[in-house]
Structures are given as C-alpha cells and as structure tokens.
Amino acid sequence: MLQQIARQQDIVEIAAQGSTRKAAALAHVAEQYGYMYGMAYRTGFKNSLVQVRMYRDPQPDARVREAATITAHPQAGNGGTAPGLEQGSLKPLPEAVGAVAVLKDLITFDVMAMYVADRSQKVKGYLACAVLTVLLLIDRSPVEAVASGAAVALLFTVAFKVGAIRRGKIAQRLTDAGFIAVRDEQGGRRFLRPGQQLPGHTNPFAA
Q1: Over 90: is that where the pLDDT of 54 sits?
Q2: Which of 4, 31, 46, 67 has the smallest C-beta neighbourhood within 10 Å, fewest atoms?
Q3: Which residues contact 96 (CB under 8 A, 6 or more apart)?
Q4: 88-143 pLDDT per residue, tens
Q5: Would residue 106 be called left, alpha or beta, if left means φ above 0 and alpha means ψ between -120 and 50 degrees?
C-alpha cells in the first residue's frame, strides 16, 4: 500500500486478509497521506480478502496532511513508524482509535451489502428452498422433505433479518458521526462525508 502511495497513484487498493479491522487500520494510514475512503467489498478465494479502494483527495488540506505525515514518518515504508499505528503493528494508537472505528463501520457497511438480501435475492433463496424440497421428495418421505425445506427457509429468514439489523445499527452510528446516506448507481445505500461524492466521472476523488 505504501508503495502505491509513494507513486502518488490516484487510486490505492488495500487487500486485507479477512479482517475489516485490519483494512480499517490501513485505510486510516492512507487517509493520513491524503487519500479518502471510496468503497469496500470482499474478494479472493472464498471471499477471504477485504478489498478497500481509496481515492486521492484533491482538497488543499489533504496535501497539507500528506506533507505533515511524510515529514513525521520518513521511514514508514522501511520499518519505521506509520501514522496512527503502533510501530510494527496494525493496532491503532489511542488518538487514532475513533477514526479507525469509523472507517471500520464504513467498510463493514459496504462489505455487508453482498450479504443483505434485496427482494430478488429473497425470492431466489426461497425458490431454492422449494426446489430442494421437491428434490428430497424423490428419495424421502413427504414429511422429511417438507421439514428439511422449511428448516433451510428458516435459516435464510434468520440470516436476512440478522444482517439487516446489524447493518441498520452501523448506519445509525455513521449518521450520528455526521455521514450522509446516498444511493449509488445500482441503488445500493452508501455513506459519504459531507462534500464527498461517489466514485465516477463527476467524483473529484476518482482518477
């Protein structure tokens, strides 16, 4: 990540193994070098990576922040200290805990989008339960088949509900922190800082 930042790329990609906490810590470091959080999603084998995309912030205060960070942490890419983190660790320093927690909420909210079902996903899920029931009727009794299908449908229902509740709590925390809810081009809900725009050709944070 620091190599990408050193090249002053317009977009920096962070791929943290499994943990949104690690991704948030790295995103915080990127912010200190003048970048702004853009989006996050899971990728890789079995969705084991949390992919975070950071955009270079063109605002003057971002360049001031970047210059101050470079001065304060000249050896960040060579084993030295990194802004906001304990040396040699992704654990945030006390003064960075709050900022990292907010980034973790932003990342988690975006990542959870793939697990929170919309109406079409729910229809597909329950249709799959019906197909499963029909298939089980081939070699099981009607009672066993229906019971198995109903059990899977119940699991779907609980998963949908739990995901929606958890994402709702995160959304409330982001709203309380001053973020603004918007809809992206696909209709998905996103949270932006005041003055920030979504990635795209009109977005000042995009390449």
Answers
A1: yes
A2: 46
A3: 28, 83, 84, 85
A4: 899 999 999 999 999 999 999 998 886 664 555 556 666 776 777 777 778 777 77
A5: alpha
* β-bridge mates for residue 92, sequence order: 85
What letter would DSSP give residue 65?
Answer: H
User: Contact, 1 vs 85, CB < 8 A?
Assistant: no
Query: 35-43 and 49-56: which strand pairing?
Result: antiparallel
Q: DSSP 3-state helix, strand, coil percentages of the chain (rounded to 5)?
A: 55, 15, 30
Assess whether pLDDT exceeds 70 at residue 194. yes
Number of residues assigned to the chain: 207
- The model carries a pTM of 0.76
Element containing residue 95 per DSSP (H, E): none
**How far is the C-alpha of 157 from the C-alpha of 155, rounded, in Å?**
5
Secondary structure in 3-state letters for 153-178 = HHHHHHHHHHHHHHHHHHHHHHHHCC
Read out DSSP for 101-170? HHHHHHHHHHHGGGTS--HHHHHHHHHHHHHHHHHHTTTS-HHHHHHHHHHHHHHHHHHHHHHHHHHHHH
Q: Cα–Cα distance between 177 and 153 in angstroms, integer? A: 36
| Average pLDDT rounded to a whole number, residues 187-192 | 87
